[in-house]
Specification:
- It contains 19 helices and 8 strands.
- It is of the alpha/beta class.
- The protein folds into 2 domains: 355 residues, Alpha-Beta Barrel (TIM Barrel), CATH 3.20.20.540; 59 residues, no CATH class.
- It has an 8-stranded parallel barrel, surrounded by 7 helices.
- α5 links the parallel β2 and β3.
- The longest helix is centred in the last third of the chain and has 22 residues.
- The termini are far apart.
């Protein structure tokens, strides 16, 4: 029998769990440094007691920035084998979390397979699964149906659940009054909004939040407070609906912590670059340092097919200013379910953003690999460069496809190579160009 229900309760009791110990090692921190951060809620260790194969990670703004990958089947793309291929590719590329956003088919076997085989943190959005699990239209579901699906996911071993607890019936009036350009673009948030409109009832995830806390405490599930009002275009960034919901998420964070339940808070969305830093600071203040989990932010609305790039720009700024967790965005964002190559491109873009932010924040050891790369480039050691590269296969392929005449150069500069010239000049050698 464990002496604690959750990682937060253990930290508050001064108990160093195996999960916290492993997370500390990865961050090059002592357990004495990490323990108080977990106790305060500034770091979460998402590790459901039923996820036996998990390789634990800490999530917090002072740690390495973590990356989440969304997968899952839909009515138009329903091959679970392809989704598992994406999962394994994501894990191999260094993703720290997988969210199963399936909205079609028999979701239980796939979710359980994922939890039994995947060492990354596993997240879900139970409101999606409610319609699928009960095979009922949205209006026919009851508040208890939604709560029961949260329990089902917790029992299965899900490490964190996104719950759109922060919108209420007041939000309906706000959305109608403020005339947003994009209304709500959160899929889960829109479902809760629609359910409230059709039934006349309050948001069950808000009304029965205490019941949900008991479930999450029992299985040590981290709540990721979903931002139903996240902006879906630049024009809606930092508006009344977004900020008012964030205030409510801060209140819910405090209530969760009173029950020793770990919390992450989800954030924007689409947002102009000049608003990102301020949003990160506002969240840290309102939500008392709870880890911030952002989708992007996407910094321009006009780049379909390239939103992994618009997202990486926003993600780097967000992480530098306090975001702890980046949800990747793929080239297929706004267009289609991502394929395996889209997943790879999304992960690489997010990894670059996260790594750049970690260097800027001074995260321990973050710049070591960059310094190794600089040494490898100075000595024109190509094999060492591959070892440092974020995607060695892509780098090798480009060089092989456009092979230079001389091995100590590339086909861009040839003997005009600055590195080659400087090495020779400094060693007193003759520099042949022609």
């Amino acid at each position: 029998m464990r002496e604690y229900a959750t990682q937060m309760e253990a930290a508050r009791k001064g108990i160093v769990t195996e999960e916290l110990k492993k997370a500390a090692q990865k961050e090059r921190m002592s357990t004495e440094e990490l323990l108080p951060l977990a106790a305060q809620g500034k770091v979460v260790i998402c590790a459901n007691r039923n996820h036996a194969c998990i390789d634990p990670e800490g999530v917090g703004s002072m740690l390495r920035t973590k990356i989440n990958v969304n997968i899952g089947v839909s009515r138009d793309c329903k091959d679970y084998d392809v989704e598992m291929e994406k999962v394994m590719e994501a894990v191999n590329l260094g993703a720290h979390a997988i969210m199963d956003l399936s909205s079609h088919g028999d979701t239980i076997p796939f979710r359980r397979k994922l939890i039994s085989e995947c060492p990354a943190m596993i997240g879900t959005v139970p409101v999606y699964d409610s319609v699928i699990h009960y095979q009922k239209d949205l209006a026919d579901l009851t508040a208890q149906d939604f709560i029961d699906v949260v329990r089902l996911h917790a029992e299965d071993g899900v490490d964190f659940v996104t719950l759109h607890c922060g919108i209420t019936r007041k939000t309906i009036d706000q959305i109608r009054k403020h005339k947003r350009k994009m209304n709500l673009v959160s899929r889960g948030g829109s479902l809760v909004f629609a359910w409230m409109c059709m039934t006349g009832e309050e948001n069950p995830f808000y009304e029965y939040f205490d019941d949900i806390l008991e479930i999450c405490r029992e299985y040590d599930v981290t709540i990721s407070l979903g931002d139903a009002c996240r902006p879906g275009c630049l024009a809606d960034g930092s508006d009344v609906c977004q900020i008012e919901e964030l205030v409510r998420l801060g209140e819910l964070t405090k209530r969760a912590w009173e029950k020793d339940v770990q919390v992450m808070v989800e954030g924007p969305g689409h947002m102009p670059m000049d608003q990102i830093a301020a949003n990160m600071k506002i969240q840290q203040s309102i939500c008392m340092g709870a880890p911030f989990y952002v989708l992007g932010p996407i910094v321009t609305d006009i780049a379909p097919g390239y939103d992994h790039i618009t997202s990486a720009i926003g993600g780097a700024i967000a992480a530098q200013n306090g975001a702890a967790f980046l949800c990747y965005v793929t080239p297929a964002e706004h267009l289609a379910l991502p394929n395996v190559e889209d997943v790879k491109q999304g992960i690489i873009a997010s990894k670059i953003a996260a790594h750049a932010a970690d260097i800027a924040k001074g995260v321990r050891g973050a710049r070591e690999i960059d310094d190794k790369m600089a040494e490898a480039r100075r000595t024109l050691d190509w094999e060492a460069q591959w070892e440092c590269a974020i995607d060695p296969a892509a780098a090798k392929k480009i060089r092989e496809d456009r092979k230079p005449e001389h091995d100590d150069t590339c086909s861009m500069c040839g003997k005009f190579c600055a590195v080659r010239s400087m090495n020779k000049a400094l060693s007193g050698e003759y520099i042949d160009i022609l």
